[in-house]
Structure formats: C-alpha cells, structure tokens
Amino acid sequence: MTLWKTVNIGIAAVIMILGLSSAVWAGDARQALSQDSTLEQVLKRNTLRVGFSTFKPWAMKSKNGEFVGFEIDVAKRLADEMGVKIRFIPTKWDGIIPALLTGKFDIIIGGMGITPKRNLKVNFSDPYEFTGMSIVANKDSAPGKTSLADLNKASTKVSVRLGTTAEKAAKNFLPKAELLKFNDEAASIQELLNGRVSCLVASNPLPESLAKKYPEKLYLPMKEDFTKEPIGFAIRKGDPDFLNFLNNWIKVTNSEGWLDARFDYWFKTDKWKSIVE
C-alpha cells in the first residue's frame, strides 16, 4: 500500500467517525429539544396553564364566578384533547406577554391579534379566527358621525384599551384624535357612557352590544368593521413541537367546523348573555 492510499484511507475514516458523531449529536439535540418543549412539560405536569384577559365575549366571568366565553371554550377543548387539566390565569393585558415570557403560564389564549411587533417577542400559531375593529360613539359628545373621516378630528376623544390592537387601529385610522388609554375594559366603557370621550374603538361584538344595551346614549357611526385581524395562540420562542401541535389542532378543529360554530355562538347570538348579566 502506498503512502497516498494510506493517507486517503485515514482521511475517509476520520470523515466517517465525524459523520457518525454528528448524527449522534444531532439525535441527542433533537431529543433534548423535544424534552424541553412546553408540550412535554404540560403533559408531565398534567395541567395546561392559560394566560388571558377579560374581553367580551372572548372571556368573561359568569354570575356564578366561573370564566366563560369563546376563548374559554377553545382553551378547555385544547386541554381536553391534550388529556390534561386546565388552569386559567387572568392577567392584565398590557403585561400579558412579559408574563408568558417569564413562565407564569404556558400559552396565551386571549383573542390576541397577530402583529409583527408582538411576533418579535413570541411565536404565533396559525390564525384560528379573525376579528374586526369597530366604533361605538356617544350621541351627545359625537352626534351624527358616519365615517372615520368625521371622527378623525383633534376635538375627538377616543377610548381604547391599553396594549390592544384597538389602540393600534385607533392610531392608524384616527391619527388626529386624542387617545385615552385604559388598563380596564369597564373603565373605557364608563368614560364613553359618561360622555367624557366621543367614541370607543374595540373589536366586535363589543361596540354592537353596547349600542344595543344603551340605545339612548350610544350609536354605531359605521355598520361594518373597518379592519380584519388574524387571531392566534401565543407561545414562547424556540418551541417547534408545541407550535406544530397547535397548528395541527387548529387544522383539525377548523375542518370539523367547531371553531366557527363556537365563534358564531359567542359573537353572533345573545344566548349566553343571561349567564353573565
């Protein structure tokens, strides 16, 4: 055997060893990544911890003290099909992403609109529903308005909930108006009812339901939503297994028509109102 052949055989052996080592390392890395997944942690803990904030009719407190709403139904079915218990963790909306990132809960199921800014901090699932922004106005402080242009004035005061896509929509579509931001949904509504703001921007059906509930005080300047926003589950970054499970869960439940049926119940009927009011 020549020296050159000996060198080639040696190089081939080294490459083979390195290849086998790389394969073993890659396998170990995949196994470690799988074990670190939130999905595996939830299964081991036997509990899915869900972060959310109350928005009608996404999530509300019923008369008997239980949480009800579209997102509550979604979270319960998700946990049921994972074969685990569920724990709801109410959280203020403006602090909900930091709370997720620090591990206070496993997932946000709270009508969270998918936005590029939020996506820099969290991973989103595929959309499981879409919602739109609408406006409800006070008859005394903003009479006779019928368009965004009518409300886009320096004299217009707009009530929005802090940290929501309603805040962003108001900034984009009503840039000349004065925004008043509230941590609490009830406080933003009270400002509107008292006439201290001209209108409130929020996702439907809240504006519609407020106009129906207080017809002597409130009205809808426009009959249609002025945005359409994708809604997704939010989880911590670096978790492909959990994201894969959630995306496939959405595909299956969408194919059955279950998500649309629950959305229609909570957003297009009044059948649930007696349990919360």
Automatic annotation (TrEMBL):
Q: Where in the cell is it found?
A: Cell envelope
- The principal location of this protein is other
Looking at the record, the residues that make up the Solute-binding protein family 3/N-terminal domain are 47-270
Keyword terms of this UniProt record: Signal
What is the annotated signal peptide range for this record? 1-26
Q: What is the recorded name of this protein?
A: Extracellular solute-binding protein family 3
- Annotated InterPro entries: SBP_3_CS (IPR018313), Solute-binding_3/MltF_N (IPR001638)
Q: Does the keyword Hydrolase apply?
A: no
PANTHER family membership: GLUTAMINE-BINDING PERIPLASMIC PROTEIN, MEMBRANE-BOUND LYTIC MUREIN TRANSGLYCOSYLASE F
Q: Which family does it belong to?
A: Belongs to the bacterial solute-binding protein 3 family.
GO CC annotation, single = cell envelope
